Amino acid sequence: MMDRYSKLQIAGIYFCIVLFLTFMLLPFFEMFMASLRPLEHLFRSPYQFWSDDFSFAAYSQMWETVPLLGRYIFNSVFISFAVTGITMVFVIPAAYAYARLQFPFKNASLAIFLGVNMFTGAVLLIPLYRVLRSLGLLNTYWAMIVPGVAFLIPTGIWLLRSYLEKIPRELEEAAFVDGASRMYTLRRVVLPLATPGLIVVGVAVFIGAYAQQFLFAITFNQTRELQPLPAGLFEFIGYQTVTWNEMMAAALVGVLPVMVIFLFLQKYLVAGLTAGAVKE
Fold it and tell me: pTM surpassing 0.70?
């Protein structure tokens, strides 16, 4: 493939990649730089990208400013893992059914799932609040887990279905000939082969659950000890001042779990997202 491009075209491709990554990573780098500056130096005029008074004091002071910061980070990770686990329980059989079985309204229901992804949580906040209140789930972990599962199941089905369709049907047919049931074949034949795809969907769902916690938390939960990190960051906003350097430090520490998971599993994520994109 590289032989079909000239050196100028290849240079242009790499330039676009570098430019894209710069715009993607520059905000995180600026967050890190802001966390190292003293608060009184953050709004110097003219703006100074580099300063001689850098300090890691904000990373120690933030635990004193917000004593429950560690609990907020734990809540975010716990809610994300809970959403991921419950979502996968529903996604695996549903994606397998869409990949292998024929049933009425199959394509129509898939289109409905795709349509659900077009709605943001803000559109359904009021009906969700009424449902959760009627079930007595407000001010609990479930108030943030249940909506997260509901919004992420369609995404998981679409991703895993594409991966399962790449697994040869002959392997399952051979198991059926030997007398294996469909559920046994799913557990012992399909899922072991679909492990990379399962990792892809799990990572995507985890990141999605981590990212959408703020809206559900401030709407469905008023218990301080159960708040996730995005809502807990509000405590850095005082009556007269905002400790921006400590807030940036807390945000970077809170995003580390997602970054670590993504870095270790990125090759599976890329492979799984491209599975099914090309017909053989």
Answer: yes
